[in-house]
């Protein structure tokens, strides 16, 4: 681990101003950051600690849920309003990591979690995401756990988090603080970037900007939602495939549907074509199976991860069955 200094700004504007330096990084719960530092995957000379800033509120008011960026995964998962009105979010959090990590991990940090691609995490390998232009050994190498959607010839690393998959399905927005002291909103769907030729740029978060909250509008579809995760072991494992699904059923027909996937995309992956195929249909196993056939559209697979297409289809069917029974 490289030596670094750490500061704890007394307020958000000071933190944002300090974060404009390219050799600095923000640290929240630190559950992912410390691993990256120990492995020399990132080597900032200064860390800006956000722990003491007032960003941990969980508030539902006037039909809007506000999750402070420093609210812990455990607190959000257990909150009664989240469990009742957005069960997919609670379930995604409870299926993440371990109780110890959930007690420390934060909303903002979870959104910015880095890929678990072994070539990115091991500095003994080249990696375009870690060192632009150095190559992507994952493409001809061990790609079993990696992405099949949103990939490029430069990177097939999978986005690792569970929470953003549920947030993507439920049209979450992020509140951002700029170094100038102003706030702005950004849809989560606009936050993440596809790798393209610049896989080292993972989001549209600019230097010095801080995620201050996750914002969700209360909507009927959120209450009939769930998150299903398929992994190699039942605890502390990242998803081979996961699915966040939500349905709004009226008069026996699917009025609205939301489907997002994890474990298969270079970012949390919204599957609009499946949603369109579900709308207007009467919920049934056959309808679900036919709609999910569209999941493979645009997939770029390797010999090692081609199984994810069928697994994703079956995972979404199971999740839809669970909430429509």
Automatic annotation (TrEMBL):
Residues 1-221 form the FAD-binding PCMH-type domain. It comes from the Bacteria. GO terms for molecular function: FAD binding; oxidoreductase activity. SMART domains: CO_deh_flav_C. Keywords: FAD, Flavoprotein, Oxidoreductase. SUPFAM superfamilies: CO dehydrogenase flavoprotein C-terminal domain-like, FAD-binding/transporter-associated domain-like. Pfam families: CO_deh_flav_C, FAD_binding_5. InterPro entries: CO_DH_flav_C, CO_DH_flav_C_dom_sf, Diverse_Substr_Oxidored, FAD-bd_PCMH, FAD-bd_PCMH-like_sf, FAD-bd_PCMH_sub1, FAD-bd_PCMH_sub2, Mopterin_DH_FAD-bd. PANTHER family: XANTHINE DEHYDROGENASE SUBUNIT C-RELATED. This is Xanthine dehydrogenase family protein subunit M. It comes from Acidisoma cellulosilyticum.
